[in-house]
Amino acid sequence: MKLWRLTRAPYVALDGRGALLNGARYAPAGYPVVSLASEAGLAVLVALRYQPRDLVGIPGDFVLGWTEVDALPERVPDPDEDTIRAFVGDWLASRRSLLTAIRSKVLPEADVIYLNPAHPDAARVPPLTTRPFDFAECLHTPPMLARFKESQ
Fold this sequence. Notes:
By secondary structure, the protein is α+β, with helices and mostly antiparallel strands. It has helices spanning 17-22, 40-48, 81-94, 135-138, 144-150; strands spanning 2-8, 34-37, 62-68, 74-75, 99-103, 111-115, 129-132.
């Protein structure tokens, strides 16, 4: 399966070091975990939520990357946040599978995919293939907007 990640260039390694130190939305600190997305657009939306609304001061070293993983994720039950966190904590501690899928709260039609770098199969996951990504370029005012507003 193709998995996507929008991150800053210094953090493209799929080692989960940031989550190890700080935790992730559903993962406790102390475990490496890599947050990926089932869709490129979801990766962008999730990262955008952590940027200033006016887009001022965003670092210029973001990259959009993808990797192919030959594994299917376990589905996380999601009746509530506590259930998700408990499942993810158990999943990380047990190392029972490489991937787990969490229905996105940002875009429920897509999934946040956690990759467990401590799982034995993680060594076979290819590094991200990346391209530069610029929020300002992506979110510029579309040329047709003024014309569209005039016709309203």
